[in-house]
Amino acid sequence: MTLRNTFKTALVGLTTHKSRSILTILGIVIGITAIMLVMSLSQGATDLILSQIQGLGSQTIIVRAGREPSGPSDFASIFTTSLKDREVTAIKNPALVRGVVAVAPNVIGSGTALYGSETKNASLLGTTPDILQALEIYPKYGAFFNDGDVSGRSSVAVLGSEVKKELFGESDAVGETIKFYDRNFKVVGVFDDIGQIGAFDIDSNIIIPVTTANQYLLGASHYTVIMVRVESEAVVEKSADDIRQTLRELHNITDPDKDDFLVATQADLAERVGTITGVLSALLLSVAAISLIVGGIGIMNIMLVSVTERTREIGLRKAVGATTGDILKQFLFESVILTSTGGVIGIALGSLLSLVMSIVLTQFLEIDWGFAFPIMGALLGFGVSALIGLIFGIYPARQASKKSPIEALRYE
Q: In terms of Cα–Cα distance, which of 273, 270, 261, 267 is closest to 105?
Protein backbone atom coordinates (compact mmCIF):
# COMPACT_ATOMS: atom_id res chain seq x y z
CA MET A 1 0.00 0.00 0.00
CA THR A 2 1.38 3.43 -0.95
CA LEU A 3 1.89 6.19 1.63
CA ARG A 4 -0.85 8.19 -0.11
CA ASN A 5 -3.40 5.40 0.35
CA THR A 6 -2.24 4.87 3.93
CA PHE A 7 -2.72 8.57 4.62
CA LYS A 8 -6.24 8.52 3.14
CA THR A 9 -7.14 5.44 5.20
CA ALA A 10 -5.89 7.14 8.36
CA LEU A 11 -8.01 10.23 7.61
CA VAL A 12 -11.10 8.07 7.10
CA GLY A 13 -10.44 6.37 10.43
CA LEU A 14 -10.20 9.72 12.24
CA THR A 15 -13.20 11.38 10.57
CA THR A 16 -15.38 8.39 11.37
CA HIS A 17 -15.14 9.32 15.06
CA LYS A 18 -14.93 13.13 14.96
CA SER A 19 -15.96 13.77 18.59
CA ARG A 20 -13.40 11.32 19.93
CA SER A 21 -10.69 12.81 17.73
CA ILE A 22 -11.47 16.35 18.94
CA LEU A 23 -11.44 15.35 22.60
CA THR A 24 -8.20 13.43 22.07
CA ILE A 25 -6.22 16.48 20.93
CA LEU A 26 -7.43 18.86 23.68
CA GLY A 27 -4.31 18.27 25.78
CA ILE A 28 -2.08 19.03 22.80
CA VAL A 29 -4.07 22.17 21.94
CA ILE A 30 -3.79 23.48 25.52
CA GLY A 31 -0.07 22.73 25.69
CA ILE A 32 0.80 24.38 22.35
CA THR A 33 -1.45 27.36 23.17
CA ALA A 34 0.43 27.81 26.44
CA ILE A 35 3.78 27.64 24.64
CA MET A 36 2.72 30.29 22.11
CA LEU A 37 1.26 32.53 24.82
CA VAL A 38 4.36 32.30 27.02
CA MET A 39 6.82 32.92 24.18
CA SER A 40 4.80 35.79 22.71
CA LEU A 41 4.29 37.60 26.04
CA SER A 42 7.91 36.97 26.98
CA GLN A 43 9.08 38.54 23.72
CA GLY A 44 6.68 41.45 24.21
CA ALA A 45 7.98 42.05 27.74
CA THR A 46 11.59 41.83 26.56
CA ASP A 47 10.96 44.31 23.72
CA LEU A 48 9.20 46.71 26.12
CA ILE A 49 12.01 46.62 28.69
CA LEU A 50 14.72 46.92 26.04
CA SER A 51 12.97 49.93 24.51
CA GLN A 52 13.00 51.59 27.95
CA ILE A 53 16.67 50.74 28.44
CA GLN A 54 17.50 52.12 25.01
CA GLY A 55 15.74 55.32 26.05
CA LEU A 56 18.65 55.91 28.44
CA GLY A 57 20.94 56.35 25.47
CA SER A 58 23.90 54.23 24.48
CA GLN A 59 26.30 56.77 26.05
CA THR A 60 24.79 56.57 29.54
CA ILE A 61 26.26 54.47 32.36
CA ILE A 62 24.24 53.61 35.47
CA VAL A 63 25.97 53.35 38.86
CA ARG A 64 23.67 51.88 41.50
CA ALA A 65 24.23 51.43 45.21
CA GLY A 66 24.44 47.79 46.30
CA ARG A 67 25.77 44.77 44.43
CA GLU A 68 23.73 42.75 42.01
CA PRO A 69 21.69 40.20 44.02
CA SER A 70 22.81 36.63 43.37
CA GLY A 71 20.77 35.08 46.17
CA PRO A 72 18.22 35.95 48.90
CA SER A 73 20.95 37.13 51.27
CA ASP A 74 22.14 39.75 48.77
CA PHE A 75 18.91 41.71 48.52
CA ALA A 76 19.75 43.69 51.66
CA SER A 77 22.74 45.14 49.79
CA ILE A 78 20.46 47.33 47.66
CA PHE A 79 19.89 49.50 50.75
CA THR A 80 23.60 50.23 51.17
CA THR A 81 24.84 53.83 51.45
CA SER A 82 27.91 53.25 49.29
CA LEU A 83 27.33 56.21 46.93
CA LYS A 84 28.03 59.66 48.41
CA ASP A 85 29.59 62.97 47.42
CA ARG A 86 33.12 61.58 47.32
CA GLU A 87 32.06 58.95 44.76
CA VAL A 88 30.48 61.66 42.59
CA THR A 89 33.62 63.78 42.84
CA ALA A 90 35.84 60.83 41.93
CA ILE A 91 33.75 59.92 38.87
CA LYS A 92 33.93 63.54 37.67
CA ASN A 93 37.74 63.48 37.89
CA PRO A 94 39.08 63.03 34.31
CA ALA A 95 42.31 61.60 35.72
CA LEU A 96 40.32 58.69 37.17
CA VAL A 97 37.45 58.20 34.70
CA ARG A 98 37.94 59.04 31.03
CA GLY A 99 35.36 60.55 28.69
CA VAL A 100 32.84 61.80 31.28
CA VAL A 101 30.72 64.80 30.24
CA ALA A 102 27.91 64.72 32.84
CA VAL A 103 27.38 63.13 36.26
CA ALA A 104 23.92 63.23 37.87
CA PRO A 105 23.51 61.77 41.38
CA ASN A 106 19.89 60.81 42.09
CA VAL A 107 17.66 59.90 44.99
CA ILE A 108 14.12 58.60 44.63
CA GLY A 109 10.99 58.53 46.76
CA SER A 110 7.26 59.13 46.58
CA GLY A 111 4.68 61.32 48.26
CA THR A 112 1.49 63.32 47.82
CA ALA A 113 1.58 66.69 46.08
CA LEU A 114 -1.08 69.33 46.80
CA TYR A 115 -2.20 72.42 44.95
CA GLY A 116 -5.34 74.05 46.27
CA SER A 117 -7.94 71.27 46.51
CA GLU A 118 -6.13 69.02 44.04
CA THR A 119 -3.88 66.15 45.14
CA LYS A 120 -1.62 63.77 43.24
CA ASN A 121 0.45 60.79 44.37
CA ALA A 122 3.76 61.40 42.65
CA SER A 123 7.26 60.00 42.48
CA LEU A 124 10.16 62.06 43.78
CA LEU A 125 13.38 62.42 41.81
CA GLY A 126 16.13 64.41 43.46
CA THR A 127 18.87 65.20 40.98
CA THR A 128 21.11 67.85 39.42
CA PRO A 129 20.98 69.73 36.10
CA ASP A 130 23.30 67.09 34.62
CA ILE A 131 20.26 64.81 34.38
CA LEU A 132 19.17 66.80 31.31
CA GLN A 133 22.32 65.82 29.42
CA ALA A 134 22.35 62.27 30.83
CA LEU A 135 18.81 61.51 29.65
CA GLU A 136 18.66 64.05 26.83
CA ILE A 137 15.44 65.62 28.10
CA TYR A 138 14.48 69.29 28.49
CA PRO A 139 11.44 71.11 29.95
CA LYS A 140 8.77 72.25 27.53
CA TYR A 141 7.65 75.15 29.71
CA GLY A 142 9.77 77.28 32.01
CA ALA A 143 13.28 76.08 32.82
CA PHE A 144 15.16 73.49 34.81
CA PHE A 145 16.73 74.47 38.13
CA ASN A 146 20.44 75.35 38.05
CA ASP A 147 23.58 74.46 39.98
CA GLY A 148 22.94 77.42 42.30
CA ASP A 149 19.61 75.88 43.29
CA VAL A 150 21.41 72.61 44.06
CA SER A 151 24.12 74.21 46.19
CA GLY A 152 21.59 76.50 47.88
CA ARG A 153 19.10 73.65 48.57
CA SER A 154 16.35 75.69 46.94
CA SER A 155 12.71 74.63 47.14
CA VAL A 156 12.06 74.55 43.42
CA ALA A 157 10.49 71.81 41.33
CA VAL A 158 10.05 70.69 37.74
CA LEU A 159 6.87 68.69 37.09
CA GLY A 160 6.24 65.72 34.83
CA SER A 161 3.34 66.15 32.42
CA GLU A 162 1.03 63.78 34.31
CA VAL A 163 1.60 65.56 37.63
CA LYS A 164 1.02 68.94 35.99
CA LYS A 165 -2.28 67.81 34.42
CA GLU A 166 -3.60 66.35 37.68
CA LEU A 167 -2.77 69.43 39.75
CA PHE A 168 -3.24 72.28 37.27
CA GLY A 169 -5.29 70.90 34.39
CA GLU A 170 -4.70 72.98 31.28
CA SER A 171 -3.58 76.10 33.19
CA ASP A 172 0.04 77.21 33.38
CA ALA A 173 1.88 75.73 36.36
CA VAL A 174 5.13 77.72 36.04
CA GLY A 175 5.47 80.20 38.91
CA GLU A 176 2.86 78.47 41.06
CA THR A 177 3.58 76.85 44.44
CA ILE A 178 2.78 73.28 45.39
CA LYS A 179 3.11 71.45 48.69
CA PHE A 180 5.13 68.25 48.65
CA TYR A 181 6.30 66.34 51.74
CA ASP A 182 4.68 69.20 53.72
CA ARG A 183 7.10 71.66 52.15
CA ASN A 184 6.32 74.41 49.65
CA PHE A 185 7.99 74.19 46.23
CA LYS A 186 7.91 76.78 43.46
CA VAL A 187 7.28 75.26 40.04
CA VAL A 188 9.98 76.50 37.64
CA GLY A 189 9.44 74.12 34.73
CA VAL A 190 7.19 71.45 33.20
CA PHE A 191 8.12 68.53 30.97
CA ASP A 192 6.09 67.46 27.97
CA ASP A 193 4.91 63.85 27.69
CA ILE A 194 8.10 61.79 27.80
CA GLY A 195 7.11 58.46 29.37
CA GLN A 196 9.45 55.83 30.74
CA ILE A 197 13.21 56.24 30.45
CA GLY A 198 14.96 53.32 32.10
CA ALA A 199 13.66 53.12 35.67
CA PHE A 200 12.23 56.65 35.60
CA ASP A 201 8.70 57.51 34.53
CA ILE A 202 9.36 61.19 33.95
CA ASP A 203 5.66 62.01 33.48
CA SER A 204 4.76 61.00 37.05
CA ASN A 205 7.78 62.63 38.73
CA ILE A 206 8.32 65.79 40.71
CA ILE A 207 11.97 66.66 40.14
CA ILE A 208 13.80 68.76 42.72
CA PRO A 209 17.45 69.49 43.64
CA VAL A 210 19.08 66.39 45.12
CA THR A 211 20.45 68.39 48.05
CA THR A 212 16.96 69.65 48.92
CA ALA A 213 15.56 66.12 48.72
CA ASN A 214 18.24 64.66 50.98
CA GLN A 215 18.27 67.37 53.63
CA TYR A 216 14.60 68.36 53.95
CA LEU A 217 12.59 65.42 52.59
CA LEU A 218 14.52 62.18 53.00
CA GLY A 219 17.01 63.03 55.73
CA ALA A 220 19.81 61.20 53.91
CA SER A 221 23.34 61.94 52.72
CA HIS A 222 23.77 59.20 50.11
CA TYR A 223 22.51 58.58 46.59
CA THR A 224 20.48 55.75 45.09
CA VAL A 225 21.76 55.99 41.51
CA ILE A 226 24.45 57.99 39.73
CA MET A 227 23.88 58.53 36.00
CA VAL A 228 27.03 59.13 33.97
CA ARG A 229 27.08 60.45 30.42
CA VAL A 230 30.23 59.88 28.38
CA GLU A 231 31.41 61.61 25.23
CA SER A 232 30.85 58.72 22.79
CA GLU A 233 29.81 55.09 22.49
CA ALA A 234 33.42 54.18 21.80
CA VAL A 235 34.49 54.94 25.38
CA VAL A 236 31.47 53.52 27.21
CA GLU A 237 33.05 50.21 28.23
CA LYS A 238 36.37 51.85 29.09
CA SER A 239 34.64 54.49 31.21
CA ALA A 240 32.56 51.81 32.95
CA ASP A 241 35.74 49.88 33.79
CA ASP A 242 37.34 53.09 35.10
CA ILE A 243 34.34 53.71 37.35
CA ARG A 244 34.49 50.18 38.74
CA GLN A 245 38.21 50.47 39.46
CA THR A 246 37.83 53.95 41.00
CA LEU A 247 35.01 52.89 43.33
CA ARG A 248 36.87 49.74 44.39
CA GLU A 249 39.88 51.82 45.37
CA LEU A 250 37.66 54.26 47.28
CA HIS A 251 35.95 51.40 49.14
CA ASN A 252 39.12 49.32 49.64
CA ILE A 253 37.66 46.40 47.67
CA THR A 254 40.12 43.88 46.19
CA ASP A 255 37.63 41.14 45.29
CA PRO A 256 35.15 42.17 42.53
CA ASP A 257 32.61 39.72 43.99
CA LYS A 258 32.49 41.96 47.09
CA ASP A 259 31.52 45.13 45.20
CA ASP A 260 28.98 47.25 47.11
CA PHE A 261 27.90 48.96 43.89
CA LEU A 262 26.74 48.00 40.39
CA VAL A 263 27.98 49.63 37.20
CA ALA A 264 25.87 48.87 34.13
CA THR A 265 25.86 49.99 30.52
CA GLN A 266 22.98 49.65 28.09
CA ALA A 267 24.51 46.42 26.79
CA ASP A 268 24.83 45.05 30.34
CA LEU A 269 21.21 45.87 31.14
CA ALA A 270 20.00 44.32 27.89
CA GLU A 271 21.95 41.14 28.65
CA ARG A 272 20.48 40.93 32.16
CA VAL A 273 16.95 41.42 30.80
CA GLY A 274 17.52 38.64 28.27
CA THR A 275 18.80 36.32 30.98
CA ILE A 276 15.90 37.02 33.35
CA THR A 277 13.16 36.70 30.74
CA GLY A 278 14.86 33.59 29.36
CA VAL A 279 14.83 31.88 32.77
CA LEU A 280 11.20 32.84 33.40
CA SER A 281 10.19 31.62 29.94
CA ALA A 282 11.97 28.31 30.52
CA LEU A 283 10.12 27.80 33.80
CA LEU A 284 6.75 28.55 32.22
CA LEU A 285 7.52 26.42 29.18
CA SER A 286 8.33 23.49 31.47
CA VAL A 287 4.81 23.79 32.90
CA ALA A 288 3.38 23.79 29.37
CA ALA A 289 5.50 20.72 28.57
CA ILE A 290 3.73 18.82 31.35
CA SER A 291 0.43 19.50 29.57
CA LEU A 292 1.90 18.12 26.36
CA ILE A 293 3.09 14.95 28.08
CA VAL A 294 -0.34 14.47 29.65
CA GLY A 295 -1.88 15.05 26.23
CA GLY A 296 0.48 12.49 24.70
CA ILE A 297 -0.48 9.88 27.30
CA GLY A 298 -4.14 10.62 26.60
CA ILE A 299 -3.59 10.08 22.89
CA MET A 300 -1.86 6.75 23.54
CA ASN A 301 -4.78 5.58 25.69
CA ILE A 302 -7.37 6.65 23.13
CA MET A 303 -5.42 4.97 20.34
CA LEU A 304 -5.28 1.73 22.34
CA VAL A 305 -9.04 1.91 22.79
CA SER A 306 -9.40 2.59 19.07
CA VAL A 307 -7.23 -0.45 18.24
CA THR A 308 -9.44 -2.67 20.41
CA GLU A 309 -12.66 -1.30 18.88
CA ARG A 310 -11.34 -1.77 15.34
CA THR A 311 -10.00 -5.30 15.79
CA ARG A 312 -12.35 -6.77 13.15
CA GLU A 313 -11.39 -3.95 10.74
CA ILE A 314 -7.71 -4.84 11.23
CA GLY A 315 -8.44 -8.51 10.64
CA LEU A 316 -10.41 -7.75 7.49
CA ARG A 317 -7.65 -5.52 6.07
CA LYS A 318 -5.02 -8.17 6.75
CA ALA A 319 -7.24 -10.80 5.17
CA VAL A 320 -7.39 -8.83 1.90
CA GLY A 321 -3.63 -8.33 1.75
CA ALA A 322 -2.61 -5.50 4.13
CA THR A 323 0.80 -6.16 5.64
CA THR A 324 1.94 -5.67 9.22
CA GLY A 325 3.80 -2.56 8.02
CA ASP A 326 0.64 -1.14 6.40
CA ILE A 327 -1.31 -1.46 9.67
CA LEU A 328 1.59 0.04 11.64
CA LYS A 329 1.84 3.04 9.29
CA GLN A 330 -1.92 3.62 9.29
CA PHE A 331 -2.18 3.93 13.07
CA LEU A 332 1.03 5.97 13.27
CA PHE A 333 -0.37 8.34 10.65
CA GLU A 334 -3.59 8.68 12.65
CA SER A 335 -1.65 9.58 15.79
CA VAL A 336 0.62 12.09 14.04
CA ILE A 337 -2.30 13.67 12.16
CA LEU A 338 -4.19 14.08 15.44
CA THR A 339 -1.33 15.76 17.29
CA SER A 340 -0.25 17.89 14.31
CA THR A 341 -3.82 19.15 13.95
CA GLY A 342 -3.81 19.95 17.66
CA GLY A 343 -0.52 21.79 17.17
CA VAL A 344 -1.92 23.96 14.36
CA ILE A 345 -5.03 24.79 16.39
CA GLY A 346 -2.84 25.57 19.42
CA ILE A 347 -0.61 27.89 17.38
CA ALA A 348 -3.62 29.79 16.03
CA LEU A 349 -5.34 29.99 19.42
CA GLY A 350 -2.14 30.99 21.23
CA SER A 351 -1.43 33.74 18.68
CA LEU A 352 -4.98 35.08 19.01
CA LEU A 353 -4.82 35.11 22.82
CA SER A 354 -1.39 36.78 22.69
CA LEU A 355 -2.78 39.52 20.44
CA VAL A 356 -5.73 40.06 22.78
CA MET A 357 -3.42 40.16 25.81
CA SER A 358 -1.14 42.73 24.17
CA ILE A 359 -4.14 44.95 23.41
CA VAL A 360 -5.48 44.59 26.97
CA LEU A 361 -2.08 45.35 28.53
CA THR A 362 -1.61 48.37 26.28
CA GLN A 363 -5.05 49.76 27.12
CA PHE A 364 -5.22 49.11 30.85
CA LEU A 365 -1.57 49.58 31.84
CA GLU A 366 -1.07 52.43 29.35
CA ILE A 367 2.18 50.95 28.09
CA ASP A 368 3.35 50.22 24.57
CA TRP A 369 3.13 46.41 24.77
CA GLY A 370 3.56 45.26 21.19
CA PHE A 371 2.33 41.94 19.82
CA ALA A 372 5.13 39.57 18.85
CA PHE A 373 4.44 36.43 16.85
CA PRO A 374 7.09 33.89 17.94
CA ILE A 375 8.08 32.13 14.72
CA MET A 376 10.37 29.79 16.63
CA GLY A 377 7.52 29.05 19.03
CA ALA A 378 5.23 28.12 16.12
CA LEU A 379 7.85 25.87 14.55
CA LEU A 380 8.66 24.35 17.93
CA GLY A 381 4.98 23.82 18.72
CA PHE A 382 4.22 22.09 15.44
CA GLY A 383 7.38 19.97 15.57
CA VAL A 384 6.82 18.92 19.17
CA SER A 385 3.16 18.05 18.58
CA ALA A 386 4.08 15.86 15.58
CA LEU A 387 6.88 14.23 17.59
CA ILE A 388 4.51 13.48 20.46
CA GLY A 389 2.11 11.82 18.01
CA LEU A 390 4.95 9.69 16.69
CA ILE A 391 6.31 8.71 20.12
CA PHE A 392 3.01 8.03 21.84
CA GLY A 393 1.52 6.42 18.74
CA ILE A 394 4.20 3.75 18.30
CA TYR A 395 2.93 1.39 21.01
CA PRO A 396 -0.75 1.39 19.92
CA ALA A 397 0.32 1.03 16.27
CA ARG A 398 2.53 -1.97 17.10
CA GLN A 399 -0.29 -3.57 19.06
CA ALA A 400 -2.57 -3.16 16.04
CA SER A 401 -0.01 -4.50 13.54
CA LYS A 402 0.73 -7.64 15.59
CA LYS A 403 -2.87 -8.87 15.64
CA SER A 404 -3.51 -12.21 13.91
CA PRO A 405 -6.03 -11.82 11.05
CA ILE A 406 -7.89 -15.04 12.00
CA GLU A 407 -8.25 -14.04 15.68
CA ALA A 408 -9.12 -10.50 14.70
CA LEU A 409 -11.95 -11.65 12.42
CA ARG A 410 -13.34 -13.81 15.23
CA TYR A 411 -13.29 -10.86 17.68
CA GLU A 412 -16.76 -9.81 18.89
A: 261
